[in-house]
Amino acid sequence: MPSIIVLSGSPSPTSKTAALSGHVANRLRAQGHVVREFRVRDLPPVPLLSADAAEPAIAEVVSAVAGADAIVVASPVYKAAYSGLLKSLLDLLPQFALADKAVLPLVTGGSPAHVLAIDYALRPVLTALGADHVVQGWFVLDKHITVGADEVTLDPAAEGPLRTVVDGFSEAVHARRPLAVAL
Amino acid sequence: MPSIIVLSGSPSPTSKTAALSGHVANRLRAQGHVVREFRVRDLPPVPLLSADAAEPAIAEVVSAVAGADAIVVASPVYKAAYSGLLKSLLDLLPQFALADKAVLPLVTGGSPAHVLAIDYALRPVLTALGADHVVQGWFVLDKHITVGADEVTLDPAAEGPLRTVVDGFSEAVHARRPLAVAL
Amino acid sequence: MPSIIVLSGSPSPTSKTAALSGHVANRLRAQGHVVREFRVRDLPPVPLLSADAAEPAIAEVVSAVAGADAIVVASPVYKAAYSGLLKSLLDLLPQFALADKAVLPLVTGGSPAHVLAIDYALRPVLTALGADHVVQGWFVLDKHITVGADEVTLDPAAEGPLRTVVDGFSEAVHARRPLAVAL
Amino acid sequence: MPSIIVLSGSPSPTSKTAALSGHVANRLRAQGHVVREFRVRDLPPVPLLSADAAEPAIAEVVSAVAGADAIVVASPVYKAAYSGLLKSLLDLLPQFALADKAVLPLVTGGSPAHVLAIDYALRPVLTALGADHVVQGWFVLDKHITVGADEVTLDPAAEGPLRTVVDGFSEAVHARRPLAVAL
Fold first, then answer.
1. B113, D113: Cβ pair inside 8 Å?
2. Using the beta-carbon criterion (under 8 Å), do B116 and D112 form an inter-chain contact?
3. Are strands A138-141 and A133-134 parallel, antiparallel or unpaired?
4. Does residue B183 belong to any structural domain of this protein?
5. N- to C-terminal Cα distance for chain D?
6. Rg value, chain D, Cα
7. Ramachandran region, residue A39 (left: φ > 0; alpha: ψ -120 to 50; beta: rest)
8. Which CATH number covers residue A172?
9. Domains: count for chain C
10. What is the enclosing helix (H) or strand (E) of A70?
11. Mean pLDDT along residues B138-145
């Protein structure tokens, strides 16, 4: 079974980005993937900000990314780009950490005016990490994400398109695995 | 056999971008692809600039792109981005013209300072055209391209890495085709 | 009196971008500036696309830009960026054509999802042209622009903020002129 | 006297970015500015990463930025963009924190291939913070910065152009102050 890492990069303890990430992780699990979630805010701040990749909790994320077939990278939009928190983790990944992996960028924000942050801010960083198969990303408005006690609900306006995006990503991940063996 | 369209977008009649495109086209042909090249500068300027996609020569390019498995998009760097000439053609393609196609961005320029134009300028436009598999692009310095009477020669510093990029793209294109059938 | 050039880069003969440009030009004239408007689509396509800056109509634009205190650059959003038509003109300007000039970027589009095209696509090109004072740009939704027989009307939701932007630009242009003399 | 804040965003304790920032700060002081330097890595990591702008050390930076006439923002290039550390600070500044301030972006990196990170990554974030006068930035190669026991030395290839950039910024800052009073 393909393994997928979901990284979410919101500094907020009640983050809609994290809620969305969990929602997507569950859908990917239902499609046969082994999914593991990491919230960057749960990592120890001192080694994270000093780029200490040897610290055990950070080393575990780096190792999990290295072993995964695919990565979902989720961030809120702050100041027209991804969060500094997310970037702090991406900064300490090895240079080609995303080579040979399918990548799905997900972004949340308060206004549709921030949509292009996916393609102009986040995608170039993912490409700089060696990714050569970053699928179409998706942007979800904060107001379309409702975080309940036990579950996350998406507004139908967001749920349908997100499913298409996630399912397309799931297919791409499944399709890449046998290929990797065959080549 | 997978079919590949190579689009080159330099306004110059003695373009290094076009020379590089031809060089790459030949290598892809040698690897079993059916390759067709278009230089945007050969298209009729009036319909091109007025976005008249019904004009026969332009309609032919649009149709060729629609039918291709993969696209190579090549441009010189002008003012920190792709050429306006190339963008004029991309502007009149349908909204999802690059969906389900592998795409290879190639850029030429006079200075390594322009390398990121691939990922920050050209790649977001290709993504806006629906591409979900834009492989790592490549940048070739003008001075590494020598245009002879019959052939194009690349400096060894450029030739080796370019081969790796083109061959990886070729593999990705071959790999995608059976998948498209299977899904 | 400060002189301002307004460049608009839509390929459409009934362009909302051009209508907006005219509207802004009139407001700047009312504030004491000498304003001259150019539509890139009125320039001869063949020399434009072959980057022939010596052609008289193109040379006139290049010369007008060189002599101006400030520039308004207006474009529709196509494929997540400025139009290829506009870029074709910017491509043939000299390397530091916008040095020592205040610049106002204006963009029109069908969806607020394109807003960041100003800052991620157009602004870097203006900066590459040597501009060091590109003020906050503005994005106007197509549906907020009504083109009448004799005049252009903006929806109040767009008119107010646009006035603030244009008036701030006007002040910046007025403020820069005495400085240029003094330094 | 105009006041200038210099922010540097490298996570490294022996940072070339910080060395360059100090070098630039000294030159600005010699030109009559009151300059204050902050290294983001000296701020407390926990409140920084949780966007706690009320923590005293962070509140002091936010307040200093609010009161300054101009800001120098310096970052190393990591993964084709500014550091996550720098962005973590920018993320917790108020929405229009850079309005009415001149801003100078400075970036250091190991290869000229990263130069455009200034204009495609850092500049849009500065613009999102309300800046309307971000002057031409400058990129310095790591190898051109030598950090000695008592001073920082720049290679002549970097020193001359950097002076031109810093002195132009200094003039712009001086010029803006009387204007602000006059308007």
1. yes
2. no
3. unpaired
4. no
5. 18
6. 15
7. beta
8. 3.40.50.360
9. 1
10. strand A70-76
11. 97
In a domain, D65, yes or no: yes
DSSP type of residue B102: E
For residue B96, the SS3 value is: coil
* Parent domain of D27: 3-176
* pLDDT recorded at residue B177: 62
Given a contact cutoff of 8 angstroms between Cβ atoms, the answer to whether D135 and C133 are in contact is: yes
Q: How many CA atoms lie within 13 A of A71 on its CB side?
A: 30
pTM: 0.96
Does the beta-carbon distance from A124 to B134 stay under 8 Å?
no
CB A122 within 8 A of CB A73: yes
DSSP string, chain C: --EEEEEE----TT-HHHHHHHHHHHHHHHTT-EEEEEEGGGS-HHHHHTT-TTSHHHHHHHHHHHH-SEEEEEEE-BTTB--HHHHHHHHTS-TTTTTT-EEEEEEEESSGGGTTHIIIIIHHHHHHTT-SEE---EEEEGGGEEE-SS-EEE-HHHHHHHHHHHHHHHHHHHHHHHHHHH-
Task: Measure the CA–CA gap between A138 and A77, rounded to whole angstroms.
Answer: 12
- Provide CB contacts within 8 A for A175, sequence distance 6+: B179, B182, B183
Cα A52 from Cα A67, distance rounded (Å): 20
Strand partners, A73: A7, A105
pLDDT for C111-154, tens place per residue? Answer: 999 999 999 999 999 999 999 999 999 999 999 999 988 889 99
Token pair belonging to C36: 């001259």
Q: Where are the beta strands (DSSP E) in chain D?
A: 3-8, 34-39, 70-76, 102-109, 133-134, 138-141, 145-147, 152-154
- Return the H-helix or E-strand segment holding A29: helix A16-30
Chains that touch C (3 or more CB pairs under 8 A): A, B, D
User: Cβ contacts (< 8 Å) between D111 and chain B: which residues?
Assistant: 112
Indicate whether A32 belongs to any domain.
Answer: yes
Q: How far is D5 from chain B (nearest CA, A)?
A: 28
Interface of B with D (CB under 8 A): 80, 111-117, 119-121, 139
Place D177 in a pLDDT band, splitting at 50, 70 and 90. Answer: low
Q: What was the ipTM of the complex prediction?
A: 0.94
Residue whose tokens read 């205190």: C69
Q: Would you say residue D131 has pLDDT above 70? A: yes
Q: Which of C45, C82, C129 sits opposite B45 (nearest CB)?
A: C45
CB neighbourhood size of B45 (10 A): 19
By the 8 A CB rule, do D125 and A80 touch? yes
Nearest CA in chain B to D120: B120
Looking at the domain assignment, is residue A183 inside a domain? no
DSSP string, B27-79: HHHHTT-EEEEEEGGGS-HHHHHTT-TTSHHHHHHHHHHHH-SEEEEEEE-BT
Helix pair angle (C156-182, D156-182), 10° resolution: 110
Per DSSP, D130 falls in state T
In degrees, rounded to 5, the angle at the alpha carbon of residue B174 between the alpha carbons of residues B170 and B180 is 135
Q: Which of C120, C135, C175 sits opposite D124 (nearest CB)?
A: C120
Number of CB pairs, chain A paired with chain D, less than 8 A apart: 104
Closest CA of chain A from D70, distance in Å = 19
Name the DSSP class of D177: H
Give C3's contacts (C-beta < 8 A, 6+ positions apart): C33, C34, C35, C36, C67, C68, C69, C70
Q: Looking at the partner chain, which of A45, A50, A128 has a beta carbon nearest the beta carbon of D80?
A: A128
Residues whose CB falls within 8 Å of the CB of residue B138, separated by 6 or more in sequence, listed in order: B104, B105, B106, B107, B118, B161, B162, B165
Interface test with C, best of A120, A138, A139 (most C CBs within 10 A): A120
